[in-house]
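sorry for the late reply, my laptop died twice this morning and i had to redo everyting from scratch. anyway the thing you sent over, i finally got around to it. pasting the sequence first so we're on the same page, its 118 residues, then the predicted structure underneath. double check i copied it right bc i was rushing
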Amino acid sequence: MTCVASVRIDDQTVTVALSCTEKIEALHGDLTVPRTAVVRARAVPDGLAEVHGQHLPTGWRGVSTAGTVRDFAPDFDMATFAVCHGRQPAVVLDLADQPYDRIVVTVGNPNDIVSRLT
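ok and here's the structure:
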């Protein structure tokens, strides 16, 4: 049993698989999107730096976050699903035609995930 989220990729879908603790923190289960919905994938050195807006999930700002984050700007409303622990490397997935605009997940292998999606 894992204690941190993982990203699972198959021919049809991309799934963010949460640990039991993360499911409680995020008030959300695993998140699956069609692989065709991922319009951009990139690796970043600090996942938390990518998460902006009103935090609806649990966690400590600047330390960890899990769940939905909404960024209400004057000309757009963006929803991010974030599972970030510490200022660690992460993968950022930009999505099209999904309830979330982005997924940000700290993982040990962000470049591997990006290469599998591009």
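The chain has one domain: 6-117.
thats about all i looked at so far, will dig more tmrw
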